[in-house]
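We treat protein structure as text, and this decision shapes the records that our systems exchange. The tokens are whole numbers drawn from a learned vocabulary of local backbone shapes. One such record is reproduced below, unchanged from the form in which we store it:
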Amino acid sequence: MNQKILDEALKHFEARNYIKAKNLFLSLANENATAQYYLGVMYRMGLGTEDDQKEAFEWFLKAAERGDPLSQYLVGCAYNTMIGSYGGTLPFDVEQMEPTVLLSKDNQRPIYIALGIGVEPNVEEAIAWFTKAALQGQVDAQQELGFMHSIAFSEQQDNESIYWFKKAAEQGCSISTYMIARDFLYSGDIEQSIKWFEKAHTLGNEEASYELGKIFEFKIKNNPDYEMAIKWYMIAAKQHNDYESQFRLGRIYQYGHGVEKNINEALNWYKKAAIQNYKEACFKLGILYSSGKIIKEDDKQAIKWFIKAAIQHDKISESILERYYKDGFKLDKEFNQKFETLFKARSHDEKAQIQFGYDYVYNYPNTNYQNEVCQWYNKLAYDGNPDAQFLYSQICCYQFDKQRLEWLKKAADQEHTKSQYELAQMYHWGNYVKDNDIESIKYYQLAANKNANAQFDLAYYYGHGIMVEVNYIEAFKRYQCAAQQIKYITDTFEQEKIQLIKLKYNAGNNEAEAKALEGDTSAQLYLGCLYQYGFEVKRNIEKAIFWYEMANKQGANEAQKQIETLRKGM
């Protein structure tokens, strides 16, 4: 009987009759892992219901606990994100997400992947669930374990990595096959690496043909086989539009390696790679057009390609563009502005020196200008300029240099927000200093006056009891302040960073929810705020009002204020 209901539910799901499918899956949900899996899918994708990543994770977890290998893999995926603060940060805004939809390699069910969503990250849990799935032959989990063990840098872990890659490769996984080939290549076993790269290519791996081209061009006992190299580069360049292979073909035709020299064919391949913004190809075209030795000199074309290379931080291209600028050539708006600021800075304009550091060196310290700006900031820092003190600490000091800490503290004492936030994170995570919760919280609180990210961090820490005692009212106040601060941020990069911090894992706070249901007014206000602005969870005005109304019934005046604000917005 149950199988009959399940079959009917699956038919409705495939026919996109999601409400009927959901009701039938729910009738089986206490005892059927497949039904639990599909309920997870429906909540993840918002099929027949509001999407709810936390609820989706709970259904996948139930199915995983009943032994469903695909659900075990997805639970591992949810736990497995290791970027950014708090152990991990969403790579996109859940409110705009379209989770990756793939066909499972066991060809049984579709996989709906949204990494790190619905639960706080936990690498140990991720490995545990991947292992359970992998032991049942779930190929995606086997591959993921291969990658996770490969980054551990120990012989034992490396053996574990190869073990799982081989397990996945036995099931026809092209990426795992490619990884085994790379391992043989790095160990110097060229014959085996060729064998495994050819297998990976046969299985559809797009990178294997380029690797084979490189092996035949460079690795065959100092005796290149250009015929085979060209064969594999051509496959990669034509079938997969691989820009590195296109660039290699350009060089082969330019210098006549194994073929007759053909500059037109070389230009053709260089341009195919450069159109995809491959830095080396852009630089090569810039050189060819600027020198005029092989093709007709064309400064306009040369500048165009040097700009494309310089945008990707090619130092030589940028130096050449600077010379063009000095000679009166027009560049694009960005580089005209950059060199105008640079020359002002060189004429001892202190404002321009600071601006140049923030705009062009701070996030890219290994530039042509590093030594030059260090001379500027050394003088300005000793003169007491807080921006220069901060920039000097970031650009000119070694990471473990005591001077780095000293200059940051000098700037922080002058209410320099970036320095305060940097110190807060250093003391929190123990970066270059011994971790110190008291110092970390002190600097977070100082930075929070002007820094939305610091407000987010403090709100999260108070809500989850990290470095401080749990204090939902303080978390509520911090999030409210952050919501006001972000209204005035216009920088696109900063806005994107805030979106990453804002949503975290869409996991919410189970402990706070339990206390709120027990009548804790502060927890109710905190949860209302989370749903009001989409902090830690997906924004949901109805849920925000629900929690605020609970708090309002207990006399929380702030809750009534927020309810009125929300209803005006609605």
Remarks:
- The chain is about 70% helix and 0% strand.
- Residues 448-570 form one domain.
- The two ends are 46 Å apart (CA to CA).
- Strands lie at 100-103, 110-113.
